[in-house]
UniProtKB/TrEMBL annotation:
InterPro entries linked: Cupin_8, JmjC_dom
Alphabetized PROSITE patterns for the sequence: JMJC
Protein name: Cupin-like domain-containing protein
Record lineage: Bacteria, Pseudomonadati, Pseudomonadota, Alphaproteobacteria, Sphingomonadales
SUPFAM superfamilies linked: Clavaminate synthase-like (SSF51197)
Pfam assignment, any one: Cupin_8
Start and end residues of each JmjC domain: 121-278
Source organism: Sphingomonas alpina
Amino acid sequence: MAEADPGIFGALATIPEVIVSGPEELDRQLRAADRPFIVRGLVSDWPLVEAGRRSTRDARDYLLRRRRERPFTVSVGAPGSDGRLFYDQAMGMNFRTLRAKLPEIFAQIDALEGKADAPPIYLASIDMHEFFAGLHEANHVELGDRVPLASIWMGTRTRIAAHNDIPDNLACVAAGRRRFTLFPREQFRNLYLGPVDNTPAGRAVSMVDFHAPDFAAHPRFREALAHAQVAELAAGDAIYIPAMWWHHVEGLEPFNILVNYWWRETPRWLGQPQDALNHALLAIRDLPEDQKRYWRDMFDYYVFGNDDEVVAHIPEAGRSILAPLTPESAGRIRAFLLRALSQ
């Protein structure tokens, strides 16, 4: 697979590195961070990392011995696609999504290893507890009082378009190498995002081909690159990606494994902001301009401003969902929305 043009990416700023002495220091770094950082060797003692250092087949055998007997979801791209899992010319997907047992998937990876223009094969965001027995217990990062979702990502050489995630993310390379290219949250306008609903993996992605940027079609991408940070991670290394930072991820070896942890500092019973955006597209975007201005003011008043003026004139016992949310009041809002949307 061709690697990114060093004339474009070689001059990007590098992601800062920190040294942690143990779980307490990692916790302190995570709580203090509002920017990405890298920890070299954070998980270098994992048995999975040690297996991958011996060979890619040893890494796969290690996983096979711990798999649960259930079908896995796997994406298979087109031969000659340079590992890019993306849209096709008709804005469908350039890959197929299949269900198969892990031995069958790994057997196909074995058969294709070393072949030029082999199709990318990618298992994305596989729940470690649900699909493996004992894998998480033997290979995990201590994250204090956080309750993260632990996922494993496995596959051949791949390129995953720049996207962002709502939770915070600690991603650990367990086998192979990965290149991360990161952008601050506010750079979304310069990344030329695709649809918010028709997406390769549930999040809107940049339409820019990072290996061959078309600056005529995407001129603002130059501005995004001025704010970009890049790093290449080897097996054992980890990267912290703050919530909603944009990241383009490449698997650089014939076989790559990543383990990541997602968590949110906000309560689990709060709604998903993306759902609110989708509903606003349905209910507000196409209104007359004068009405849109009104609703912009309403959102500023109730949501983004949300100061004492909003409720000062309402008796405290009668503020309903304008009071600080609780699991119970959040549940009432959710039930109200479900009824309203079903009409």
